[in-house]
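User: Last request for today: this protein with pyridoxal-5'-phosphate, please.
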Amino acid sequence: MSTFVEKARSQFPSLASGYIFADNAGGSQCAKIVVDRISDYLLNTNVQLGADYSVSVESTQRVASASVSAAKLFNAASPDEVAFASSSTQAAENLARALENDIQEGDELIVTGEHEANAGGWKKLAVRRGATVKFWHARQSESAPNNPYSVCLSVDDLIPLITSKTRIVAFTACSNILGSIVPVKDVIKAARTKASEVGIRKIEFSVDCVAYAPHRQIDVQGWDVDYCFFSFYKVYGPHVSGVYARAASLKSSLTALTHHFLDVDSISYKIQPGGPGYETTYGTTGVLDYLLSLTPSNDLAASFKAIAEHEQTLLGPLLAFLRSQEPRGVRIVGDEQAGLSRVPTVSFVVTGERALRSQDVVKTFDQKGGIGIRYGHFYAYSLVDNLTPKLDIVDAVVRISLVHYNTVEEVEKIIAILKEVLG
Ligand SMILES: Cc1ncc(COP(=O)(O)O)c(C=O)c1O
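Assistant: Here's the final one, the structure of the complex with pyridoxal-5'-phosphate:
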């Protein structure tokens, strides 16, 4: 085991049991530093924020420090552009609600078939405001023309959808099923160019970084994004989500969700209708510190580089094994090749004469014990529903999702069980 992985693993007490956590896209393990901060908050500073007595001053500072650290994770220009929600689904719904007054009848909202969190709220908003929803669907990957389940989002399909009426484009930075990374910066640049050609009143982009944030560094400024969110419980932290709204959008697009007598110009009140869970919000500060601790330079970019490099050593053998099972009927759902445009979230189905249900593949893993993987559509319902040949929407795909604290030895064990399952 490399020193990088050893160091990472040592910060997760749950990994000492040897259990193989391979459902990380569902939820990662929580770093000890995060748990220590939550515990410290509850044991020592658990009072209401905003009062002048000393403990309240400290708890107020602690919760405020979470915006500072989340701003670094987003690469936001200011902590004033960051708020929190109980989940990313809630964060996206809050955004859609806050945007309601700035959506006009006939506006067009573009969504993807990826996780419903960044689609459902916009679809419901469209119904409320008489706007139209358009779908940016995944298409067959050029790199695997013979595998109908090797699909990806292509900017070439987005651009023709943009008209003078487009108001919102909502998409994922990384698919929680396909594992493929969308080139966010290029997509937004191309879409803004088209928008200025067709003369749009106002176009804004909402990017779901939930499946992206555990593997790569977010850059809302570099990407030129208006709204962005991710869930800390998938990034080695607690159940709380961070949400970014660009200062200009806060000012001109969003209407406050909170009480009329509060500071409606502050982001935390604009898109955060009530207080966040104080202890978990403070706990999120441990996520940044954990990530920074992974490399000697204490630099986020270096940490994510090391994470991405190690994750490729997990992804390569797993994909190679699944590709070798193509004659057995195994079809990778997503990009078949390893590479930096892909994270180690690997989905597949077993088709053909000796087809296996996804739930039966997972059952064998459950019976063996000591390892957690999962099957289903993982709320990327429309993506799975649109695959052809059609899959049973409930049985859907088997997903093995790894992160940087997984080891090559664990991948070897997973492959050994897969060999048994496939016979
Ligand atoms: C890509 C993606 N977006 C959004 C979500 C929803 O996140 P939350 O559970 O915090 O609502 C998930 C959860 O799995 C996800 O994978």
